[in-house]
Write a structure and sequence with these properties.
The chain has about 750 residues and is of the alpha/beta class. The chain has 33 helices and 20 strands. Keywords: Metal-binding, Multifunctional enzyme, Oxidoreductase.
């Protein structure tokens, strides 16, 4: 099937459309229903009657946006009417929810009179925290937005105008930086004089472009002062009329620094690009076909052409989804009365700054694993970059507070943590650990320091203040790679081939002499194997923690730390733990990587160490030792091991958290089973530490939970070591390294 057929099938698959309403509170019992509706609902109604702002506390208003259109100017389709525009508006709702966790009601109003539209939207003000106007034709869209901004007290944003303006504005900031040009000296030419073009031109002036340097062309040609005086252009176009000779787009582009296309495809030739000033900036944003193709524009000049389009199949896509979800997120969270110019500028500047930073692996993978680095082919962030939420929404909230648009003040540092939680429980849990790490950073040795991911992780670890990273490897290669990646930092490097590390070799020989390693072999291992080097470094106290394993199989990466660092004084066995995060639950799973067939003593030790780990995430542990038996329902050697381990832990005065077992997995995690059939269990709430009877079941269990249960997995985290050591999984991303560095620092703080 072609794209159209696929899209039709996508939309009509039962249930039709793309959105639904779901409840956020329990509705399982009679009491639940009496709280949700009659008679309990009267209480919040009366509170809101006393103080209308309580609607933000007792209803969904504060997270609800109305996407409103009459379908008179649907992108690429034109005036198709209200009903036909509904799939687009539903899609807008999907983007709001996907990128910023904002709920949407789409409203298609069947009227072309702008004054009627204003009155209809005004009447719905009590419902919404904000209004997103969409696909309303010019010049009526100007009237609707201007009146609504004056007459209602919630944010109003016409995305067709301001979305393109803001995102292309961010691109302009970086394009000018790369081209070495000052905004106030740029000569800018616009092709198109509709709502989006006029709003974009206005916004460029807010960013620093001089209004007198903007030349705007409509379908007739350059908008001149003579045309304005003759009444040939409307009031909105008149503000960009220039006292210049009449001419066409080709005349306007001669000598220009910037071309901004918001018109129709194919109207710009290579000759027109060649006539522009040195190092031209070309934003050809007509969709689906740009004013000039990407390859054509690039081939037109020998010097650098910085090119952006509205298409996703070329670099630098000007995509409005980089703006509106996050703008509304910040505006809603401070209960803003409007989205003003300061907030729009803050959005563009935040996006521009983000594009200059290292790009997460997940984003690189989403775009074919091709390198993404600040430069002519990367001047604005990618839409799937999760960091956009954390950079733009706080910038919007701050600008709203500073400009007086906010009705409530928020703590911006705490706000970023709230935004993390919106993207998933795992981010919320890691924020707890990373904040602890930042409070007292420790030195973390990174084996395999020449690996690009390790270098990028070291940069982020250092930049965020999580730890003091030390990269182990060839110093020249590490510094060269960092420079090629455009990372602005001075890495700390331990180079075994040039430093005086004889004492490390002596120590390794001392530890392993009776295990078959000669002094000469110890020296070779220290010089050539960063796992042994890093292990001795930590054992000797020259680093507080070690991360390794990025390019090794787990057993081979674990072997050197076990041989050199060893387990804790009171612990005989290390274990691997995964933290699995669901929407409303966190579970620690052990052992999933180390002990193949543990006995009861090992199970008990693993449980104790996993409980300690849970507390580092501010989780009070409730441990269940799992089996296929419930409390003696099956009695054999296999079921006795977890049963005995549970009894050992219950009898241990040093264990100050709840432990029970043996029990089946559903018994451990389902409250009704625990309270009903097994009300005698020591667990009063479902377990959050699950200890499996062997490595095979643990590994199978965590992977099924992750893949079928939709959990995010963090780990494996190594517990029970004498010093903090964590072994990465082959293929881990930079964020995984950063997260485990945070865990390692908190481990070291406990030491």
């Amino acid at each position: 099937m072609g794209l159209d057929e696929d899209a039709l099938e996508y939309h009509r698959t039962d249930p039709p459309g793309k959105i639904e309403i779901s409840t956020t509170k329990p509705t399982n019992t009679q009491r639940d229903l009496s709280l949700a509706y009659s008679p309990g609902v009267a209480a919040p109604c009366l509170e809101i009657d006393e103080d209308e702002t309580d609607a933000y506390s007792y209803t969904a208003k504060g997270n609800l946006v109305g996407v409103v259109s009459n379908g008179s100017a649907v992108l690429g389709l034109g005036d198709i009417g209200a009903q036909a525009s509904k799939p687009v508006m539903e899609g807008k709702g999907v983007l709001f929810k996907r990128f910023a966790d904002i709920d949407v009601f789409d409203l298609e109003l069947d009227d072309s009179d702008p004054h009627k539209l204003v009155e209809a939207i005004k009447m719905m003000e009590p419902t919404f925290g904000g209004i997103n106007l969409e696909d309303i034709k010019a010049p009526e869209c100007f009237t609707v937005e201007e009146r609504l901004r004056e007459e209602i007290d919630i944010p109003v944003f016409h995305d067709d105008q301001h979305g393109t303006a803001i995102i292309s504005g961010a691109a302009l900031l970086n394009a000018a930086d790369i081209a070495g040009k000052s905004l106030d000296e740029l000569e800018v030419v616009f092709s198109g004089a509709g709502a989006s073009a006029i709003a974009t031109a206005r916004f460029y002036v807010s960013l620093g472009v001089r209004k007198e340097n903007i030349t705007m062309c409509d379908s007739t040609g350059i908008i001149t002062a003579d045309r304005a005086a003759a009444g040939e252009v409307n009031e909105y176009k008149q503000q960009f009329a220039r006292d210049v000779p009449e001419g066409g787009l080709a005349d306007a582009m001669e000598g220009a620094d910037v071309f901004v296309g918001l018109s129709i495809g194919g109207i710009v030739s290579q000759e027109m690009v060649q006539s522009m000033a040195a190092d031209p900036i070309v934003f050809a944003m007509a969709n689906p076909d740009p004013e000039i193709g990407y390859e054509e524009a690039k081939a037109a000049r020998d010097d650098t052409v910085i090119m952006a389009t509205g298409r996703s199949d070329y670099p630098n896509q000007v995509n409005n989804v980089l703006g509106f979800p996050f703008i509304f997120r910040g505006a809603l969270d401070v209960r803003a009365t409007e989205i003003n110019e300061d907030m729009k500028v803050a959005c563009a500047e935040a996006l521009a700054e983000l594009a200059r930073q290292d790009v997460p692996d997940a984003v690189v993978k989403a775009y074919g694993d091709e390198p993404i680095q600040y430069g002519p082919d990367y001047i604005i962030p990618k839409p799937v970059d999760p960091r956009v939420l954390f950079r733009v929404a706080p910038a919007i909230a701050q600008a709203a507070m500073e400009s007086g648009a906010a009705r409530t003040e928020i703590d911006l540092e705490a706000y970023e943590e709230e935004l993390e939680a919106r993207l998933g429980k795992s981010r919320e849990m890691m924020r707890v650990v990373l904040n602890k790490a930042k409070s007292d950073p420790k030195t973390v040795a990174l084996a395999e320091g020449e690996n690009e991911k390790m270098i990028r992780a070291a940069y982020q670890i250092q930049e965020q203040g999580i730890a003091l990273p030390v990269l182990i490897g060839d110093e020249d290669e590490i510094r060269g790679t960092a420079a090629n990646l455009g990372l602005d930092f001075d890495p700390t490097v331990a180079d075994p081939s040039v430093g005086d590390y004889e004492e490390y070799a002596d120590r390794l020989h001392e530890l392993r002499a009776r295990k078959g390693i000669t002094r000469s072999e110890a020296g070779e291992l220290i010089e050539r194997d960063s796992n042994y080097f890093g292990s001795v470094m930590v054992e000797q106290g020259d680093a507080d923690a070690l991360l390794t394993g990025l390019s090794h199989h787990y057993p081979s990466a674990l072997r050197p730390p076990l041989q050199v660092v060893g387990t804790d004084e009171d612990v005989d066995y290390a274990a691997g733990v995964y933290m699995l995060t669901f929407k409303n639950r966190v579970i620690f799973v052990a052992d999933a990587t180390v002990n193949q067939d543990p006995n009861e003593e090992v199970l008990a030790e693993v449980t104790k160490q996993t409980g300690k780990l849970a507390r580092r995430f501010n989780i009070e542990p409730r441990a269940a030792l799992l089996s296929y038996s419930n409390f003696g329902s099956v009695d054999n050697e296999g079921t006795r091991k977890p049963r005995t381990a549970a009894q050992m832990l219950q009898d241990d005065p040093d264990v100050d958290f709840t432990v029970d077992g043996e029990m089946q997995a559903d018994t451990a995690v389902v409250e009704d089973i625990l309270e009903g059939t097994y009300g005698f269990s020591d667990l009063e709430e479902p377990a959050n530490v699950l200890v499996f009877p062997n490595l095979e079941s643990g590994n199978i269990g965590y992977k099924l939970l992750q893949r079928l249960g939709g959990a995010d997995a963090i780990g494996p985290m190594l517990v029970g070591m004498d010093e903090p050591v964590h072994v990465l999984q082959r293929g881990d991303e930079v964020k995984d390294i950063v997260n485990l560095a945070g865990v390692a620092v908190v481990d070291a703080q406990q030491e």
